[in-house]
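=== RUN LOG ===
request id: a7f3
mode: sequence -> structure
chains: 1
length: 107
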Amino acid sequence: MTSAQVASPTPLSPGHRFTWANGGTTIRSRVEVVRPGHDLTWTGIALWLVAVHRNVIETLPDGQARLTSTESMAGVAAALLMPEEKLQQQLQAFVEAIAAEAERRSR
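=== RESULT ===
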């Protein structure tokens, strides 16, 4: 993500709209599910693609948290523009960046 604009700052809730950029492509998104500490899901439209991005936080038995981030895309040539391997790499980098920030904030 290289930039983001939120239509209204708070509170984040279903229907909340935001615009952001990824690699120079502007994406218009809408929050679909908000369950603080558990789930955040949004949809996004860019070019002729529609994406659904879901983030789920699980509390593990040892008290640690695990973030799972998944995304699906549909549209003309979606697999060519965002091959599964590239999508998984981006999701992994996203989760790692959040983990690093969580670690930094917990110090």
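=== NOTES ===
The two ends are 25 Å apart (CA to CA).
The mean pLDDT is 90.
=== END ===
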